[in-house]
Amino acid sequence: MKFLSLTAGFVLPAVLASAAQAQLVNHKDLSLATALAIATTASETCKAQGNRVTVAVIGRTGELIVQLRGDDASPHTIENSFRKAYTARTFRTASGEFGQRQKENAPGFALWLSNISATPGGLPIKVGDDVIGAVGVSGSPGGDKDEACAKAGLDKVADQLK
User: Fold this and answer.
1) Beta-sheet strand order (sheet of 64-69)
2) What is the pLDDT of residues 76-96, one digit of tens each?
């Protein structure tokens, strides 16, 4: 019993000292204004090219911040734009690059996860190496065109992502 008391006497102060030194996580998050600027620019870029798209911008934890459905965009673009953004956020890379990796490294287990899309059009939003969200575009004839619009949205706010 004396050994237990002695051990507790050493362990308890160590645990309490460790907890006292714990720190809060400090990070940047997307504001509504920044998310809206990304989405609006991406949407307008695709519209100017004659494409009817939906744009989704999600935050750090995969939550939807803003989603814009363009005039006459197909109904499936709502879900697909979110899925592209979610894939880019989750895997910290472009959704098209994720898809290419899955082709090259079968069996591609990640393709079976919820809200994942292996098609181009989703890009992570980064501050340095920290992924703080993602943008996804769906509706252009070809994911490369969706991705170009997403990139235009990110370029619009590049000065804020530092």
Assistant:
1) 64-69, 54-59, 130-138, 122-127
2) 999 999 999 999 999 999 999
